[in-house]
């Protein structure tokens, strides 16, 4: 009987610890973040710069040091999803602002799709933004 009485509080304590670790590690959700275009209109041409800001929706603050691992730009808003352009991330001097260099070959609607990891968070932040290429 003694060993059963000792194991029961130990098991209860371990179960409580497991629950607290599980709930405390989930501080934020990927839906707590969103990308926003710095400018909704960008000039047509090779070397066009598209800038976005990653925002923590709970605090309203910009989120620096995210790792952008997926990026695509295409003309899906104008019904031409297959018309995609190469895109590369370039440096930014403003924390929480991420800049991309691309070729906007024609006027119209362009969709920027991004996937990112926020430091210290689990899950992936994904967003699709629509901008307009202008002359």
UniProtKB/TrEMBL annotation:
<feature type="domain" description="YtkA-like">
    <location>
        <begin position="29"/>
        <end position="114"/>
    </location>
</feature>
<protein>
    <submittedName>
        <fullName>YtkA-like protein</fullName>
    </submittedName>
</protein>
<dbReference type="Pfam" id="PF13115">
    <property type="entry name" value="YtkA"/>
</dbReference>
<keyword id="KW-0732">Signal</keyword>
<dbReference type="InterPro" id="IPR032693">
    <property type="entry name" value="YtkA-like_dom"/>
</dbReference>
<feature type="signal peptide">
    <location>
        <begin position="1"/>
        <end position="28"/>
    </location>
</feature>
């Amino acid at each position: 009987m003694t060993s059963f009485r000792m194991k029961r509080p130990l098991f209860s304590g371990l179960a409580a610890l497991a629950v607290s670790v599980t709930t405390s590690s989930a501080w934020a959700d990927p839906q707590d973040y969103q990308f926003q275009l710095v400018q909704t209109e960008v000039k047509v041409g090779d070397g066009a710069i598209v800038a976005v800001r990653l925002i923590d929706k709970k605090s309203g603050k910009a989120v620096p040091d995210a790792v952008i691992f997926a990026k695509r730009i295409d003309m899906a808003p104008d019904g031409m999803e297959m018309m995609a352009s190469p895109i590369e991330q370039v440096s930014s001097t403003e924390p929480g602002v991420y800049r991309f260099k691309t070729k906007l070959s024609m006027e119209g609607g362009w969709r920027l799709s991004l996937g990112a990891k926020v430091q210290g968070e689990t899950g992936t932040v994904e967003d699709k933004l629509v901008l307009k290429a202008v002359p």
